[in-house]
Design brief:
Radius of gyration: 22 Å
Number of helices: 20
Distance between the termini: 69 Å
């Protein structure tokens, strides 16, 4: 069963609306401040919509359903709860500092603390993270299940829409469409579960169907201890996430950014409960199907015409919302943090143009890599772990560590993390099921501490 003609007309009209929004806000773009940060004028409502839509996207929706279908109820307790709990300090203390201490991007912070070389190296690694290949992988599953087209074609088509929206409107275009898509996500995600829950027979029905795999209904039994530890550690990767800091910098005050993130917690917890239970239903109804495709199949079978279109709009819209935020950050990283630093001073017009070109480059990189992964969540975890292993310690340390921070410390934190992660990814220790991130992060911290003891600060280096 695929989408009907009426469903497709509704989706086409909504796509045109998104393009119109991008075109409308393109007329207000004058410099990087207006293009990347919306003139630092976003109110609480737009920040909430942008944060929810960016975080969930294809990975947050399809990915959570996938992992719930593979690992069961433990996804909610071990992954979702720890991820949200870990963001409370970000909202209260860490995030607001970025509003004051960075000019445009996270590598600006790295340069101010560790120097130009560390900023360029960090920007290159952050650029890889901003590809967010997991969301493109999710779009492939959505297209295959909803229209019967192959994964690559679906992914390329949706990425094309993301490029148009982001290149034209910048952050304001992204934020306004995020708010609209946020409501579509809320509507679509909550419409599916009630009917399917009744159809499967509720909790008793799930227990009966999944009796052969009792670990699926065990709150802590679905993951191996090492996998669970890796997910708990990864849940703090948001502290190195450029789009979250971008939202704080774009808010009209640090207080607004803090309130917006705190407001998101209730929404996120509810979303996770709905998505985890939906994943269990997908496992019960389609045990042999790829979970992402099974999710869309459940939707198409349970919702009427028109409503199905709104669900797909919410699902694709969340994916688009996530990608446009990351591609905007990736384009700015390539233009402002790599190209401009290496080439020298660029005018505001040149920076905006370079950012738009960078958005296209990031999108192409993501499309080329996305379909090498079997699930959207696996793609997300790989890219996120890679960036967190390198960037987490230097970024968070720059923000909150009161002691001496040096150029050597910045280099050693970044390089030690990425080298150790890459080594254990290429040569895994299967006997201990060793997760590369669990090993790389403490090594990065140790190297950063040693480097800060023996290196020179940026001021000392410039004076020298």
């Amino acid at each position: 069963m695929f989408l009907s003609s009426f469903d497709n007309v509704v989706i086409a009209v909504f796509t045109l609306f998104i393009v119109f929004v991008g075109y409308h806000f393109s007329k207000a773009v004058k410099d990087m401040e207006s293009f990347y940060l919306g003139n630092r004028s976003l109110p609480w409502s737009l920040i909430v919509g942008a944060l929810v839509a960016t975080w969930y996207g294809g990975v947050g929706t399809v990915g959570t359903v996938e992992y719930a279908a593979l690992y069961g109820l433990s996804v909610w307790l071990i992954w979702c709860v720890t991820a949200h709990a870990g963001r409370i300090p970000l909202a209260l203390w860490v995030g607001p500092k970025i509003h004051v201490r960075t000019d445009i991007t996270v590598p600006d912070l790295l340069e101010s603390v560790y120097g130009k070389g560390v900023a360029v190296l960090g920007a290159i690694l952050m650029l890889i993270y901003c590809t967010q290949v997991g969301n493109v992988t999710a779009m492939g599953f959505i297209g295959k299940a909803a229209w019967g087209i192959d994964n690559v074609t679906s992914g390329v088509a949706c990425v094309g829409i993301v490029i148009v929206l982001t290149v034209l409107g910048g952050l304001m275009g992204v934020a306004v469409t995020d708010m609209v898509l946020f409501w579509c996500m809320c509507f679509g995600l909550t419409m599916v579960l009630p009917g399917q829950w009744a159809d499967i027979g509720g909790w008793a029905g799930l227990q009966q169907v999944l009796a052969g795999t009792p670990e699926m209904l065990d709150p802590i039994g679905g993951f191996t201890p090492m996998k669970a530890l890796m997910l708990i550690v990864l849940s703090f990767g948001v502290y190195a996430d450029p789009t979250f800091y971008q939202r704080f910098s774009a808010a009209n005050s640090p207080k607004v950014g803090r309130r917006a993130l705190l407001s998101c917690f209730t929404i996120w917890v509810c979303f996770d409960i709905v998505l985890t239970l939906t994943g269990l239903v997908v496992k019960a109804k389609y045990p042999d199907m790829v979970p992402g495709e099974g999710y869309i199949r459940v939707v198409l079978e349970s919702l009427p015409e028109g409503i199905r279109a709104l669900f797909i709009i919410g699902l694709l819209g969340g994916t688009i919302s996530a990608l446009d935020g990351y591609y905007l950050s990736g384009g700015a990283t390539l233009a402002n943090d790599i190209y401009a630093r290496l080439k020298g001073n660029l005018s505001q017009k040149q920076l905006v143009t370079a950012t738009r070109v960078g958005i296209i480059i990031v999108a192409v990189m993501a499309t080329l890599a996305a379909f090498r992964f079997t699930t959207a969540q696996d793609a997300f975890i790989f890219i996120s772990s890679l960036w967190m292993a390198a960037g987490f310690v230097p970024i968070v340390g720059a923000l909150i560590w009161p002691g001496k921070k040096t150029v050597l410390g910045g280099y050693m934190g970044l390089l030690a993390g990425i080298i150790v992660f890459s080594y254990f990814k290429i040569f895994p220790v299967e006997a201990f099921e060793m997760e590369p991130l669990v090993t790389a992060l403490p090594v990065s911290l140790f190297a950063w501490i040693i480097g800060n003891r023996f290196g020179k600060t940026v001021v000392e280096k410039e004076g020298f």
